[in-house]
Amino acid sequence: MFAAYFDCPGGPENLYMKEVMKPSPGQGEVLVKVSASALNRADLLQRRGKYPPPEGASDILGLEAAGSVAGLGPGCRGRWKIGDAVMALLSGGGQAQYVTVPEGHLMPIPKDMTFIQAAAIPEAWLTAFQLLHFVGKIQEGETVLIHAGASGVGMAAIQLVRLAKAIPIVTAGTEEKLKATAKAGAAAGFNYKNEDFSEKVLEFTQDCVGGSYWEKNLNCLSTDGRWIIYGLLSGGEVHGDLLARLLSKRASIHTSLLRSRDKEYKERLVRAFTEDALPYFSGGASPRLQPLVDSVYPLHKIAEAHRVMEENKNTGKIVIEVPVCFKKGPLL
Fold first, then answer.
1. Domain that holds residue 106
2. N or C: which end of the chain has fewer CB within 10 A?
């Protein structure tokens, strides 16, 4: 089969189409013929050599995929059959013609949804669901401040906060992105590039003052509030009395990564999401959840997709369509 690949860490120009062995499903695994995958920040970091896949995971990029069941490994419990339309949470390998997946990491694709739309769900929506419910323990009526509100995870979080009957407010870097977040359900949005988001949050919640970046986040926390960190694109250094400030508010910081979680945790997460959120993606559901697809690139143009994400041009998910036939060579 063919897969997007790179031999040396570096820029998007290092990506190329490589012919590799088609995987075979192991114990309890399902072979999926991939129709679409999607791009995540983790793919960019892995390409740069800064985020290696977990031990035992495929070194092919791609943390999510949508497609059809093409094979069943020994020990599968009979939930899936050949031809089923599925979407998958992966530790790697999604940007290829085929990928193997533990059967408990698969979800059915709603009947009125395309593979392109479905590919935009697993990583972003399961990450947001995990952060809100498994980590943050969101409660009805709470206000949730979501940074990078127009990202794939951000747009998912906005809708999931609404589903939980809480109030989503966001930050984003352009007015266009803020409009998109409002359309998705954000109660308020602030441009972090040209205004002090902590002051704007104060106007909205009456519970925040200004300061440095980490201080602004901390000051926006209410007493007993939770600050959840799942990425450090703005850097990880902190200077000042962070712990004392946290203690004074009885606040807590939670950090989380999804990719490195064990198989059983991911199965519990997928099961909870399938039961509690997936039904709201179907037509007629209220409220209706919808993945936002920014753009679609064929797999042989994945380098261009990487460049778009690196420049923060996307609102929502960048989806990678996997054609049936490929040509070898650089992915320009």
1. 2-122+288-321
2. C
Q: What was the pLDDT predicted at 232? A: 60
What CATH number does the domain containing 105 carry? 3.90.180.10
Residue 207 has pLDDT above 60, yes or no: no
More confident residue, 261 or 317: 317
| Average pLDDT of the residues in 39-60 | 93
pLDDT digits (tens, 9 = 90+) for 161-174: 999 999 999 999 89
Looking at the fold, whether 140 and 232 belong to one and the same domain comes out as yes
> What average pLDDT score do residues 188-199 get?
81
Using CA atoms, how far residue 155 sits from 110, 159, 186, 314, in Å, is 19, 7, 9, 12
- Residue 329 counted as domain residue: no
